[in-house]
Amino acid sequence: MNRRQLCSLCVRSDDSLERMLYDMAHMHHRDLRTLAGLGRHQADSFFEKVRDAASRRKEAQRQSSRQDRESLSRMRDDLFDDLLDEISQGGGAQGLIDGYLNDSSRHALEERVAHEDMSGEYIEEKDVREALSAFVDMRLIDVLDGAYRLTPRGCRRLAGHILRRIMETVRAGPSGPNPTGDEGFGTSEGFVTRRYEFGDEFARIDTQATLLAALTRRPGACPVRFEEKDVRVRETVVMSRMVNGLIIDASGSMEGDKLHSAMDISLALTELIGRSARDTLKIYVFSNTVEEVPYWEIPNRKFSGTITDMRGALKTFRTRTQSFRGDKQVYLITDTAPNSENGQYVGFERAVPGVLEEAHYCRLAGITLNIVMLDEAKHLSEFASALARRNTGRVFFARPGDLGRVVIEDYLRRRR
C-alpha cells in the first residue's frame, strides 16, 4: 500500500521532518547567508538536507558547464577554420580576430563558466532556500528578510513532537478513570466533541456528531459514507480547573542547553494542557524584566538577560491570575539564585528576603510553587528548600535533559 493511502491514525506524522524542525528551532543562527557558511561543517539533519540541495545544484551546474565549454570550444574551432579560409584566399585575419575578441556571447559564456567553477565548491544561500522550501510550502516556517522563523502552525507541530518524545520517558500511570478528590468543580462529559485521535476510547465516539460531520462534508449524499476524519469523540472534561504558570529564568547562566530545554517544556506543556477544556497555561520569561510570552513566539525569540529578578516574576504571575478561580500552581525553572529587585541588581543577600516574602504571598493566594533547579550547588539547594518551605511547595533538581520528564510527570500526577 502506498504511504499516502494510509489513514492518519496509522501514520501519525513525518518524524524525520519533525526532527529537522526541532533542529531548526534550536539553531543559534537563522539568517540564510550564515547558514550557507555553516553548511559544510554541521552534522544535523537540516544541514544534510542543505548539502543534498547543494549536490543537486552542483550536478546541474556541471551539466550546464559542460555544455558551455563545448560551445566555447566550437567557437574557437570555427574561428580557426575561418582564419585558414581567409588566409588561403589571401585575405587579412585581423577582422576575424577582432570579431572573436569582441563577441559578447563568448564573453557571457566565459563568465558563466568561471562563475560555475568558483561556486561549485561552496554551499550557497539558494541551497538553504531549497532545503527550507518544503517547510515553507507546509506553512511551518516563513522566510522574511533573509531569515526564517517558525509560524504558529510550525510551533504547534513542534510542540506535539516534543510532547511525544517526553511521554516516551514518563512513567506510565494507572489506566482507567483517576480520582479528582474534592477539588474544583466536579466533572462533566459529552458537551464538547473533537476529531478522533489515536488512543481515544471507542466508547467515547459520538455517533450523532460523527453523522453530522459526514453530512456536512457531503451534503445530501445517500448512502452516507464515513471517512476517518468524520469520527468525533466526546471530551471528558475535568472541571477542577487548574491555572498553571511556567516561569523561565533567561539570565546569562541559562544560555545553551538549559534555555533550550526550558523552551521545549513550554511547548510540550502548552500542547498537553491545550487538550484540557478547563486548564490554562501562562508562560513568563524573566531576567532584567518580566514578560508574558505566547508559546508560538518562544522558538523565535532570543532571550539574553544578565540579572535575576525572581521576586518580580512570582509577583507578576500572582497579580495577573488573582481573578482566576480553581487550583493554581507555577513551575519556576532556574539555575541560579535571585540577585535583583525591580530590575536593579542588589545582590543575593538583599534579594532573598523579598523572594521569600513573595512566596508567602503566593501561598496566601492559593498558588503552589514548584521550584525546578537546574544546578545542585549547596547554596542553591538551601535557597530552593527554604523557598519551598515558605510556600509549602516542592523542589525538583534536574539536568536539562530531564527537565521535560520532571515537569510533565508532575503535572500529570497532580491532574489524577
Name the strands of the widest sheet in spatial order. 7-6-5-8-11-12
The major β-sheet equals: 6 strands, mixed
| Shape verdict | elongated
Percent in helix: 40-55%
Low-confidence stretches: 1-13, 173-190
**What's the overall average pLDDT, rounded?**
82
Structural class call reads: alpha/beta
Return the string of H and E elements.
Answer: HHHHHHEEHEHEEHEEHEEEHEHEH
Query: What is the number of E strands?
Result: 12
Total helical segments: 13
Q: State which percent range the strand residues make up.
A: 15-25%
Separation of the first and last Cα atoms: 41 Å
Give Rg in angstroms.
Answer: 31 Å
Task: Based on the model shown, name its key terms.
416 residues; alpha/beta; six-stranded mixed β-sheet; two-stranded antiparallel ribbon; disordered N terminus
List the helices and strands and how they pair.
Elements: H1 15-25, H2 32-38, H3 45-88, H4 94-101, H5 104-119, H6 125-137, E1 141-144, E2 147-150, H7 152-167, E3 187-195, H8 207-217, E4 232-238, E5 242-249, H9 257-273, E6 280-286, E7 290-292, H10 310-320, E8 327-334, E9 340-341, E10 344-345, H11 348-364, E11 367-373, H12 378-391, E12 394-397, H13 403-415
Parallel strand pairs: 5-6, 5-8, 8-11, 11-12
Antiparallel strand pairs: 1-2, 3-4, 6-7, 9-10
